[in-house]
Automatic annotation (TrEMBL):
Binding locations of a divalent metal cation 1: H12, H14, E90, D203
Protein name: Deoxyribonuclease
Superkingdom of the organism of origin: Bacteria
Binding site for a divalent metal cation 2: H129, H155
One GO MF term attached to the UniProt entry: hydrolase activity, acting on ester bonds
Annotated Pfam families: TatD_DNase
The entry's keywords: Hydrolase, Metal-binding
Length: 255
């Protein structure tokens, strides 16, 4: 699944929203692999097809919580594809002002998705959105994740250290991006996460006004360097460590 040339694995990237995806010209740097999260299960077939062409692209089956209000019926397609998906994302809850009115519907959909994942015999990685709904989401994950076959990866987590600790207790990992690691809250969270549970992401295209494959790699390298500096580790040592974390996690599901 991950070639020998790979140095960075982006655990949360919206490849289908990047320039060049629709016309077939998108390429990733040869040293980069990316978990290509989707915002609706209807995007899954196209992402799977493009992943055969785009070296390093790993498709994920998602239903973004911000779309539950406007595209609720999309989630019914999840059951059609779940058996084929090794990575599920982007899924989760969003309690920010624009979306908090449909939190109950979001929670219902997420609960159904988690049950589908648990019922399916395949080990899965879950890329999870939790903006301003961390307590509610943590409680739901504690209820639904009772097996080692599901590994939550908390995308751009902005909750408390206490909430993070509860998530670590159920085996969660945390993916950090270049914007997150520049903030005091992101740095504080990093200080409380075991390095074995640290992954990197970009959340492109939402974190940069431009995109090309060289920039993509640069952002991942920048995040790695900043995390290493914060943890008082040598960049190369930490880069090897985080790549090992990433490849070992992917190996649990791509057998």
């Amino acid at each position: 699944m991950v070639g020998n040339d790979i140095k960075y694995i982006d655990f949360h990237c919206h490849c289908d929203l990047l320039p060049g995806f629709d016309n077939g010209s998108l390429k990733l740097d040869r040293e980069v692999a990316a978990v290509a999260v989707t915002t609706t299960p209807l995007a899954w077939p196209k992402n799977v097809e493009e992943s055969k062409r785009i070296i390093g692209m790993i498709p994920a089956l998602g239903m973004h919580p911000q779309l539950i209000g406007s595209r609720f019926n999309d989630h019914y397609s999840f059951s059609k594809y779940i058996q084929y998906a090794s990575i599920v994302g982007e899924i989760g809850l969003d309690g920010s002002t624009a979306f908090k009115e449909n939190l109950a519907a979001q929670e219902m959909v997420l609960s159904e998705i988690l049950e589908l994942c648990a019922e399916n015999s395949k080990t899965k990685i879950l890329s999870i959105h939790s903006l301003r709904a961390e307590t509610r989401l943590t409680r739901l994950l504690q209820q639904k994740i009772s097996t080692n076959s599901l590994t939550p990866v908390m995308h751009w987590f902005t909750g408390s250290v206490t909430q993070a600790s509860k998530l670590l207790d159920i085996g969660a990992k945390f993916s950090f991006n270049h914007k997150m690691i520049r903030t005091k809250s992101g740095q504080n969270l990093l200080s409380h996460i075991p390095k074995e549970a640290v992954l990197i992401e970009t959340d492109l295209p939402f974190t940069s006004k431009i995109f090309d494959s060289a920039l993509h790699k640069t952002l991942l390298k920048e995040t790695t360097v900043k995390i290493a500096t914060h943890l008082n580790m040598h960049h190369e040592e930490f880069s090897d460590s985080i790549l090992q974390n990433s490849t070992e996690l992917l190996a649990t599901t791509f057998k």
